[in-house]
Write a structure and sequence with these properties.
The chain contains 5 helices and 5 strands; from the N terminus they run βααββαααββ. With 147 residues, the chain is an alpha+beta fold.
Length: 147
């Protein structure tokens, strides 16, 4: 069995906990392991907070798909995107370069640390997309547990 959902949200701070709670509630109800639920909910919160803070005019979207033992989440905005001249290692490891108390870039570092794979990319003229992948573990009483 697989499930997916998509949200279109205003670029407002209140949208971040809404996206997080919807994802968390869905995964808990489906029977995903609590630790995995927590990791993904923090990663989604960080990606949404980045969209709210850095995106241009308009809304942003969050799309999540649970298919078998994998979860893929995409957060897309309409902002200027990631700086094209910023090297990949700076995007993925901002704290190592700026110091562990740096505020700028901490969310991207947290996302990468909490998931199995993350991809940051631009949609030319249309904004940025953060794609998050995580292999799921299931509780014994799971509704969607992969056999």
């Amino acid at each position: 069995m697989s499930i997916w959902w998509s949200l279109h949200l205003r670029r407002e701070a209140a949208s971040v906990p809404l996206a997080r709670r919807l994802l968390l509630g869905t995964m808990q109800t489906a029977g995903v392991d609590p630790e995995i639920c927590y990791d993904l909910s923090v990663a989604v919160s960080e990606a949404c907070a980045n969209a709210v803070e850095h995106a241009g005019e308009g809304d942003y979207s969050v799309t999540a798909r649970i298919d078998g033992d994998r979860c893929r989440i995409e957060v897309a905005d309409s902002g200027p995107g990631f700086a094209p001249d910023r090297p990949r290692h700076q995007l993925a490891r901002p704290l190592a370069l700026k110091g562990r108390h740096a505020e700028d870039g901490r969310g991207l570092f947290l996302i990468e640390a909490l998931v199995d794979h993350v991809h940051f990319h631009n949609r030319p003229g249309r904004g940025a997309v953060v794609t998050i992948d995580k292999i799921l573990k299931w509780r014994d009483d799971s509704l969607l547990k992969v056999s």
